[in-house]
């Protein structure tokens, strides 16, 4: 079984994907980390974010088993990831890796922006997870602070809105719900309630 989960920044898709993978005994890939890892490598080496050839060569050396959200969580890495995510050639390379991952037995949960629309369009279960920008900014702020990283609510809210706009309006694989995705707004739900709602959707869909 493949479960495809998409949604805007800090909507809770990664949390749900991890919980669903554990619940159903599936592999999990946070595809945002693949974009973050390429962006972090470019930033660390002082390389330009707009050079497709360089980004592709970094992507070719990615090791999916070594992606670490704690290392890649920094706010500026998310911003840089969203900038390089407009490069079609880079996306082709990363989508190849992500599709290979999705073939693992007995199945996988993938979360990102284009899983239901591009990476796994035939997934039997698709979720599109949202929450209001204010709720998402609060969650991301608390998450960063709890990891001892700097976080300012007002600038995170402004940046999330900008990033959503960039992700939704790009011409390649824009953020949008697949036509057959189930919408899950978690603005008023805690993690447990969101998980229960997601399991209900999966049970009905499969
Ligand atoms: N329903 C929820 N209620 C409260 N906090 C949540 C909920 N879902 C996720 N979170 C918290 O919000 C933050 C962002 O969630 P995450 O799953 O990383 O989002 P995404 O993968 O969409 O960026 C994390 O700190 C997570 O623990
Ligand atoms: N499948 C995906 C996953 C992420 N991305 C890009 O990578 C950026 C970072 O993704 P992420 O999922 O780690 O971001 P958060 O939602 O965790 O903040 C996003 O803003 C997108 O621009 C993408 O284009 N396609």
From TrEMBL:
Domain Cytidylate kinase: 3-203
Keywords: ATP-binding, Cytoplasm, Kinase, Nucleotide-binding, Transferase
CC annotations in GO: cytoplasm
EC number in record: 2.7.4.25
Broad EC category: transferase
Positions with a binding annotation for ATP: 7-15
InterPro entries, per the entry: Cytidylate_kin, Cytidylate_kinase_dom, P-loop_NTPase
Compartment(s) where it occurs, according to its Swiss-Prot or TrEMBL record: Cytoplasm
GO terms (BP aspect): pyrimidine nucleotide metabolic process
Molecular-function annotations in GO: ATP binding; dCMP kinase activity
Catalytic activity: dCMP + ATP = dCDP + ADP; CMP + ATP = CDP + ADP
Family note: Belongs to the cytidylate kinase family. Type 1 subfamily.
NCBIfam families: cmk
Listed name of the protein: Cytidylate kinase
Native species: Stappia sediminis
Name of the gene this protein is made from: cmk
């Amino acid at each position: 079984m493949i479960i495809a989960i998409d949604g805007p920044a800090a909507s809770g898709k990664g949390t749900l994907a991890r919980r669903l993978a554990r619940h159903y005994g599936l592999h999990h890939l946070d595809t945002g980390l693949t974009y973050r890892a390429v962006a972090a490598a470019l930033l660390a080496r002082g390389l330009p974010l707009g050079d497709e050839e360089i980004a592709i060569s970094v992507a070719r050396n990615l090791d999916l088993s070594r992606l670490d959200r704690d290392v890649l969580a920094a706010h500026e890495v998310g911003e840089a990831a969203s900038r390089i995510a407009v490069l079609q050639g880079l996306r082709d390379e990363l989508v190849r890796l992500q599709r290979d991952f999705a073939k693992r037995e007995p199945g996988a949960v993938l979360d990102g922006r284009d899983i239901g629309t591009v990476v796994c369009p035939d997934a039997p279960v698709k979720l599109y997870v949202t929450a209001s920008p204010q709720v998402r900014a609060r969650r991301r702020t608390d998450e960063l602070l709890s990891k001892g990283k700097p976080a300012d609510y007002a600038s995170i809210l402004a940046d999330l809105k900008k990033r959503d706009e960039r992700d939704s309006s790009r011409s390649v694989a824009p953020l949008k719900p697949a036509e057959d995705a189930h919408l899950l707004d978690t603005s008023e739900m805690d993690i447990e309630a969101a998980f229960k709602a997601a399991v209900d959707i999966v049970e009905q869909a499969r």
